[in-house]
Amino acid sequence: TVSVLYWVAMFRPTQNAREHELASESLTPWGQQVSLQNSIKRVLGDYSDRLSVLLELLQNADDAGATRVQFFLDLRSFPSEADGLLGEGMARCQGPALVAVNNAKFTEEDFNALGNIGCGSKRNNPMKTGRFGVGFNTVYHVTDCPSLVSADRVLILDPSRRHIENLKEHDPPGVSIDFKTVQKLKARVPNQFAPYSLYEVDWEKAFEHTLIRLPLRMESDKSFSMSSTTWSPGDVRRLFHEFADILKTCMLFLKNVQSIELNEITSDADNGVCRLAAAEFKHSDDVEAYRKALHDYICRPPEQQRKQFLRTTRLTVTLWKGPEKANHTFLVTSCIKPTDELPDGIIVEEDRGKMVQWSAVAMEVDTKTWPRLSYDTHGRLSCGKLMCFLPLPVSTGLPCWIHGCFALSSDRRNLAVESFDGRPTWETLWNKRLLAIAAECLAVSLDKIVQREEKRRADTEPDVSAFYAHWPLANKVNTQIASMADVFFDCIVRQQRRIFWSQASKTWVDISTACFATNKALVEAPPQRIVDAVLIHDSLRLVVMDGALMDELPKATRRLAHQPPVLLSVRLVADILRRRAVAAVDNVVQLDFVLPAIADLPPDDRVTLLASLANYLTSDTEVDLRDVPLPMLDDDPNADIEKCVGILRPPTTVFVVRPEGDRHLRKLFPTAATVVDGAFWRAVSAHPSFKRDTWIGHGVVELSVKNLGACLSQLSPIMRPNELDTAREWSGVEGDLELAQWLSDLL
In terms of Cα–Cα distance, which of 59, 35, 30 is closest to 47? Predict the structure, then answer.
């Protein structure tokens, strides 16, 4: 064995010989390289939204732990003589600038991360918003030479190497200057550090904040500009104006920032700083408690996340726009599912440690915690945004904001999409999972609103249109979040959440005790109060909803294989009345037995309600009204006012006496309880929407002197037509001589 190894060693070239052999060949060094300028330009192509500059700076500040972020449009100009600067090109950086200041200090890790593009130093930290390692580079939309001051150093970044003198091609594109060196340089290049005045920078001690200065690109030059877009102070003002429109919601799902300011420093620094807009949380203690609870849960080891995190909090943001000040309150429900509840099939690979199953929903509410709607200048409903800590340029289609730790496209503008072959990727499955959690949050928020409303016991009715406007109907929400609809309806059905308002009974009900009708369906229906009085016998309450919601509800229950909702119809009302009166032995049923909810109303009110119910029952000619107790009021002042509901039982016919003078007709039929007086009939007939002919066709006959004979033939055995000849000698019913004389004269 030893000899074999020795032989092999004898014929193996030594390392020095191999190097000499390779060196003798003409090998030309070659390989893939990355151009810094091209990399930055690609980032700017992805992050093309103007607002991305401010949003990314805000995100970085939040990740650094800052609680206060200030943006300044600094209009001041500073001396630009080359001998007072680090390079002739730095003269372009002495004019107006966009400046961002936050109250967190850069760490060594932050400084190192800034030197890399696309490395994603925050990727595996679940408490960091940034993910792709490119966000800071959006500043090159505005500038070609940004600078940063924090801790004990100043960074000046010069990707084109055209601003700082003596930067060689292979040198890093920028300089780092510690504060001790700054103190020495100030005497030689005093103009270089003048722009940092007014920002509380003291070069003799560490700067506990972070200042990022972006000199505006007033002119573009292909040889060194990162973008062809130029920026003027007017452009920054417009950017601030756009940012102010979303300012009130920017902090809702951040982890640290509690105030944001947009300011302007005039060219005359003596005039100070002018605040253009600002947003600040009103009750900081509540915000900190809420955020701490989120932080503590997220940072737990997976084995300690046995139960989901679910919390609903009121957050109030004070918003200033110029001199105007307003408070905006949001009801925020957050839910974090434990790791072991991640459904099978979702494979979160390299980002698994970062992707937390956290979703949340925020809706703006008034001081009474009732949903509040806002409209644009054209009268259209203002909708919220989809959010991943910060707003995305994706409308939800709902007046609420939906947050999730979503898997996003690289430009942070959209949710990740399916692969080319149409199969879902893990990112799309993950996003669908988060949207399902958001749907649960929305159901919880609406339930909490109802609970608070019930405790308040207000005399005024709630504005249910604002309440229902937050429901995620599949045909209303953005297609990217359409999957929320089924999950939402599944939650409210399966969990029997009482979020359906019954105006008639002034109460909230769940879907199992609701009978639904659209506004359009009730145009020809009786008032809600009388319908609700009937439905209560089946433990139902009338719920009136708009057409779009009523279209979606049955479809959703069918898709989810739930029991379909009960819908209002003439047949339903007739069946309930029939079942209610099934035990009646007489043809007249007491009103307080059939409709106890209206039995105590004044007679005039009962006439109105019962007339409308009669009209409704006869509006559908396909419905059989036999054995249905029909509302009839007795006009006899001596009659029992409660005996006002009759039942149609073949061959029974209800006779209505119209002429007041023919009161004797009633006395002819003392045992025929179905005969009722005419005042109610006249009230019914006079109703503008009452279908009199239809009602008559359902077994009601108007009794008069002219049709007396025909009517008598239907009332065996009281009297038959062939007995009319002997009626002249009839002594009257119960000895009523007046009636006998009347009948004798009539015949």
Answer: 59
